[in-house]
Structures are given as C-alpha cells and as structure tokens.
Prior knowledge:
Structural class: mainly alpha
Shape: elongated
Low-confidence stretches: 138-148
Order of helices and strands: EHEEHEHEHHHHHHHHHHHHHH
Number of strands: 5
Radius of gyration: 28 Å
Helix content: 55-70%
Strand content: 5-15%
Strand order of the largest sheet: 1-3-5
Largest sheet: 3 strands, antiparallel
Mean pLDDT: 83
Amino acid sequence: MIELYKFISEEELLEIREKKFREFSSNFPLHFYLDKSFDQNIDEKLIFLVKCEISAEDLLTLKIETSNEIVISSENLEAFNLLIYRIKIIDTSLGDLHHLDEIIKDIIINEMHLAEMRLKIFLETNSREIITDDYFYGEDDFTSDYNSELTEEMIEKIENEIRESAEFLDKKKEKTININTVKDAVEFLINEDLKQNDINVIKNQSINARMDSFRNHFGLGTYIRNLFFHGKTNQKFLDDIKEYKKKFSAIDHGEFGEGIIEDYLWRKLNNCETTSENLRKIIEIEEKVKSVRDEIYINKEVDNLSDEENDDLWDQFYKQLKEGSLKNSSKRVKLFSYNFKEEEIEKYLDLDDKSKNDKNNFEEYYYQQKALLARLDKEENEIFENLKQDYFNVQNILNILEHKHE
C-alpha cells in the first residue's frame, strides 16, 4: 500500500467530514505527498495533515506515476475516491483556527472516539473485529419527537408488550425449577434457551472483555439473575452456587451468583477450563492469602470488635494485598485461571506498574497489556499497532487544539 499525505484547511476538513472521511473534494487543490513532514507546507491556512492509502496497482490504473508529489486531476477524482481507504487525520500544525474552532474540535473528538472504539473492539473480540468507518453514523435524519404525548393506543401497546415479556420469562423460569447445578444451568442456556446469535456474541468475547468485571452486570447478568435467582429457587442449585463461590475466588460472583454461571458459560463455549497445573498455583496463592488474613485476625473475637478495631485490622490486611506479600494476588489468580504462563503474568504486572508510575504514558502501557492478553499473532499485532497509532494521533491533535491558547 502507498501512503499519501495531504495538507488541508479547516474548510476542507468540513467537506471531508460531510463525505464521512471517504472522499476528497474538487473544491480544493488535489496535491498529495509521500512525505508527511510539515516542512514542505508553505500555506499557513493548511493546518491539518491527513493520510489515505491506495495500492500501487490502483495508482497505475489512473495512469499516475509515483513521485514525491502526486496531483490528482478533477477527471480522475471520482475514480481516485473509490480506490482509496478511509481518510485519517494524523497531525496538525500550530496555526490558528478561526471561526470554526468548536466545530473542528467536535470533528476531532468524534474521530478520536471512533479510533478508540475500533482499537477496543479489535482487542475485545476473538474474531479481531474491526468496526466499519460509519460505526457512529446513524440515520441521516433523526426525527423522533421526544416531547410528543403518548396516546392511549401507544400506552396500551407498551403495557401489552411488558405483560407478554413477563409471561414469556415466567414460562422459561418454570423450566429452571429442576436445575440443580451450575453445569445444568449452562447446558440449559446453550441447548434450550439462548439464541444462536447470543451464543456467538458470548463466545466471541476475548479475555480482554472477560477482565472487565462489570461488562455483563446489566446485560447477560441481569437476564441470568431473573431466570435462575429471582422468584422460585431450588435449594440444591443454591448450594451448588455456594460451593462454586468457595472454590473459584477468581470469578466475579455477581450479586447472587450469576457471575459464576456466566463465567462457566463463556469457558465452556471457548474450551477454556483452567489446567490442573494452574489450579494448583491458584490454590497456593489462595492458601497464602488465607494464612496472612488468619495471622492478622488471630485471637481476635471478630463479633466483639468495635468498628474502629475492625477497620484497623482490615487496613492491615488490605495493605498486604496492595503493597505487601500478597500484592497482585487477585490478578495472578484471575490470569492463572485463563491459563496464562508465569512469564506472561510477570510481563502483564510489569506493564501494570509502569502504567501507575508513568501517568503520561498510561494508555500506551494499558494497551500493551491488552495486546498481551489478546495473544496477537504477527499480522494481528501489526493491525493493533496501526489502530493504536490512529487513536494516539487524533488524541494528540485534540490536545494541541485544547491548549493552543495557553
């Protein structure tokens, strides 16, 4: 791929934005460079640098020879726009913005959000999904009137939908009465309850997504709570949940234990059962945590302690978890549960320390951690680096714009 760079003004940026960053306009000079240095820019109005990519073969079809400077004729522009990849803003000079200051900043913010979302979703999906350029673009005209009053017909329709939804869930809950174990619950979800599309979405969650403990609290977590815990309950099932809570501290249990079912579901779909070797390491860590806690609370009658004494003991234990002999124990347990090796965990924790001690480069270390968890191959890592650089480029431009008057 050949990278082409172009210096543009605020006005041209607005037109490019109108075309959803897919087309250049004939209203402006069509000069492109293979070099991205601002040194060659002699027009102070051209304060943004953008980039697009095109294959060498496609350039030849336009009968354009590759040189340091390329000029696209108006006759070739339509074909050129069809052949290039998405236009990206990658840099800005320190020129002054004019009356379009806030409008331009909004464009940059939207581009930053898109770049960030593309990077995040790439790392949080096993399919390494790259969202489309129009991810944030909805319908061109959004005409819903939030201030309009609900008619009696509309109210009746909403009430009927709520009633039907509740009745449908009740029928499902009747089938769960005889479910006695977490494994049975997961089998029910896979074989009888969830739609194939829902199963595919859950299976496609990467370990990066799994490390976000609040990700499914209001989605799948709510559904599982309503299906298995609210209303009628089976004591054998609740006892099995309790046993899982004792065995698997690495799991975010959720409010009632729904996190245990959700975790087991993901692991079954992705064949990610913790190895016996890693289970042994987890047990060793948990025994050490218990030993330190017991030592702090030894000979203490917890029920008779004052709030101040209880807080003091907890502070001692928490200090060990944060800084002392138990530092990073919970992270180690969770990573071991996903079958990471010792050296991978050490690298992850080293990046964790760097992100805390070097605030200026926090996001660099943060995304390096996510890349490590994703276990990217060579090709995927190249894509990751490009997506990360796209995000950092736009973020840097926004920072320059926000501080240009200081």
